[in-house]
């Protein structure tokens, strides 16, 4: 240990001398060959920078060494540099003293700056290491939490589709499913905050159907409001653009958080959502304005500037549970979209949240608007698609297997990457669902090996994982994967990816397509022809957004009333379940 310390000290001293010698040599050469015309004037001009550079590079000791070398050289070798005698008189003593004092100050300041820079670099490195550790931790937590949730949510959805399940068990499954969704929402909130802090959240603008998105949110939150005996009113301006380009998921999250917050803190009265749009120029740019008003407890003036802080909760409302992250995420998402979020409130009267988000109008939807939950099977004239599932978690493997078997795909299973590579070579599937994290060989390495095979370029590979960061997704795609699905996955997403990459054609529960121009408006009088049990089923499936069951019910209605069945199918197929709900509500009100 002592030997190492001595060696380190020796290296340090040699380094200081080397820096000082190089600095003074450069200064001497500059004075002799580039500043020769100055002769014996301002003799110290080239040595101040030498001292500063030496102190910055080597520290205070290097600066002092350079100072000593400068005084020695000027005192003894000045004539060689300037070819003129050194100044005589008092300046012989005064100028070296001034130079020495200034050089000591310069060395001290330069060395201090160097230390500060080293400390700053060290702090930056530690912060980056902490950020990387945080990202790794979040990725691991995301995977560990989402993997079991994927199985819980997926299998409860599958069980609810089983017609032999008793009605009371369906309700129990609904409770399990809602609890799982709530837990997933809490996890997502924590991850969203962490991703925003890490600078990993990005805006993904796509064409979206604004009216459909708003109707879905209103229907979802109306049920939540009604469970507390509240009324959720909505007012959508007539001039709202039909299609816009924006980040639909973030807009949904903002509105769901704000409406959910309003419902949570309102015990009686109502919540109102008003949506307006203003054209900002003739280039199709709009400013969307959302106004959410509640008759809740209100927010004290002292808290208005704190409600958007992470984990903030009103102290006198500890009975109201939550993470305290909803408003924080809403504000940060709004700012990411280039918008603004404001709040006004009066204690005992209620609160008003106002959101302004810029967007660009779009002419039509980019993606197909077919609801993939209506799928019966692969189309009869389709080829025999072979799908390989590579997944080590039994629950997730079985869930994906059930989803694909239900519509008629031929399947094989592998439980790790190495087994997946061997199965690919032997069986030559059309598409592989490849889990990223697996024992023996992970999905990234397995994908690379498959791509190196002579037939590896022909197969489509879709990665599946609970990872959440965008740069990780880019890493998956860079390994050779064609696409990526995040757990917990949904039926729609699986079927949509298969259609995208294999051009799969499906057989739907109902294939009739009625145009807007031919479609009649649904009224309460039309529904009066249905018997009570059918009406109850219709209301239940609409409230729970059970599109598959709605399609089956519409099929049954068609045997008795073809015209009503066509109208209902149009509303279901075009995501207008909110309007069916409103008509049903009006029908029951008229009865009372």
Topology:
Elements: H1 2-33, H2 47-58, H3 60-82, H4 91-160, H5 167-197, E1 206-209, H6 210-226, E2 231-236, E3 243-246, H7 248-264, E4 270-279, E5 285-294, H8 326-336, E6 340-346, E7 350-362, E8 375-378, E9 386-390, H9 394-405, E10 410-414, H10 417-427, E11 431-435, H11 443-452, E12 460-465, H12 470-478, E13 483-486, H13 491-502, E14 506-508, H14 524-527, H15 532-543, H16 547-558, H17 562-573, H18 577-591
Parallel strand pairs: 2-4, 9-10, 9-11, 11-12, 12-13
Antiparallel strand pairs: 1-3, 3-7, 4-5, 5-7, 6-7, 8-14
Helix pairs in contact: 1-2, 1-3, 2-3, 2-4, 3-4, 4-5, 4-9, 5-8, 6-7, 6-18, 7-8, 10-11, 15-16, 15-18, 16-17
The helix/strand class is alpha/beta
The backbone outline, from C-alpha atoms, is elongated
Low-confidence stretches: 87-91, 365-370, 511-519
| SS elements, strand count | 14
Largest sheet: 7 strands, mixed
Cα radius of gyration in angstroms: 36 Å
- Can you give the helix content as a percent range? 40-55%
Number of helices: 18
Distance between the termini: 92 Å
Mean pLDDT: 77
What is the strand content? 5-15%
List keywords for this structure.
five-stranded parallel beta sheet, seven-stranded mixed beta sheet, 592 residues, 18 helices, alpha/beta
């Amino acid at each position: 240990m002592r030997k190492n310390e001595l060696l380190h000290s020796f290296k340090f001293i040699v380094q200081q001398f080397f820096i000082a010698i190089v600095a003074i040599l450069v200064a001497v050469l500059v004075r002799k060959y580039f500043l020769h015309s100055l002769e014996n004037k301002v003799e110290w001009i080239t040595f101040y920078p030498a001292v500063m550079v030496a102190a910055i590079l080597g520290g205070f000791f290097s600066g002092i060494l350079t100072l000593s070398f400068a005084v020695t050289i000027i005192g003894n070798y000045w004539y060689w540099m300037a070819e003129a005698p050194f100044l005589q008189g008092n300046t012989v003593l005064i100028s070296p003293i001034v130079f020495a004092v200034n050089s000591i100050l310069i060395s001290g300041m330069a060395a201090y700056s160097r230390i500060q820079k080293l400390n700053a670099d060290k702090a930056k490195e530690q912060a980056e290491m902490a950020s990387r550790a945080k990202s790794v931790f979040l990725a691991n937590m995301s995977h560990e939490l989402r993997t079991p949730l994927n199985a819980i949510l997926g299998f409860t959805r599958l069980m609810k589709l089983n017609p032999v399940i008793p009605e009371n068990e369906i309700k129990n499954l609904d409770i399990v499913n809602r609890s799982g969704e709530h837990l997933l929402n809490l996890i997502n909130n924590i991850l969203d905050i962490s991703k925003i802090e890490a600078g990993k959240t990005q805006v993904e603008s796509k064409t979206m159907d604004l009216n459909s998105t708003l109707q879905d949110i209103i229907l979802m939150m109306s049920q939540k409001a009604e469970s507390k005996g509240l009324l959720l009113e909505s007012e959508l301006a007539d001039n709202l653009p039909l299609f816009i380009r924006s980040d639909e998921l973030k807009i949904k999250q903002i509105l769901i958080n704000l409406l959910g917050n309003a419902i949570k803190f309102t015990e009686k009265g109502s919540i109102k959502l008003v949506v307006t749009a203003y054209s900002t120029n003739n280039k199709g740019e709009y400013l969307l304005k959302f106004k959410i008003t509640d008759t809740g407890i209100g927010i004290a003036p002292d808290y208005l500037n704190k409600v958007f802080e992470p984990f903030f909760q009103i102290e006198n409302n500890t009975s109201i549970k939550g993470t305290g992250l909803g408003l924080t995420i809403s504000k940060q998402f709004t700012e990411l979209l280039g918008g603004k979020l404001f709040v006004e409130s009066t204690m005992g009267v209620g609160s008003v949240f106002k959101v302004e988000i810029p967007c660009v109008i779009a002419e039509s939807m980019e993606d197909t608007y077919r609801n993939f939950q209506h799928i019966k099977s692969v189309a009869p004239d389709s080829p025999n698609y072979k799908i390989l599932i590579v997944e080590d978690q039994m629950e997730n493997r079985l869930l994906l297997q059930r989803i694909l078997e239900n519509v008629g795909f031929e399947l094989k299973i592998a439980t790790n990457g190495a087994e997946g590579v061997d199965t690919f070579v032997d069986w030559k599937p059309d598409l592989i669902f490849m889990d990223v994290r697996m024992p023996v060989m992970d999905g990234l390495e397995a994908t690379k090996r498959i791509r190196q095979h002579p037939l590896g370029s022909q197969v489509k590979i879709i990665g599946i994982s609970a990872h959440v960061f965008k740069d990780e997704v880019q890493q998956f795609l860079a390994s050779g994967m064609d696409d990526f699905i995040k757990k917990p996955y949904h039926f729609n997403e699986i079927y949509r990816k298969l259609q995208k990459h294999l051009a799969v054609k499906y057989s739907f529960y109902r294939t009739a397509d009625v145009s807007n121009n031919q479609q009649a408006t649904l009224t309460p009088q039309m529904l009066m022809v249905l018997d009570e049990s059918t009406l109850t089923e219709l209301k239940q499936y609409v409230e729970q957004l059970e599109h598959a069951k709605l399609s089956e019910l519409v099929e049954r209605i068609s045997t008795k009333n073809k015209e009503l069945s066509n109208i209902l199918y149009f509303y279901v197929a075009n995501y207008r379940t909110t309007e069916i709900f409103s008509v049903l509500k009006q029908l029951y009100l008229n009865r009372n």
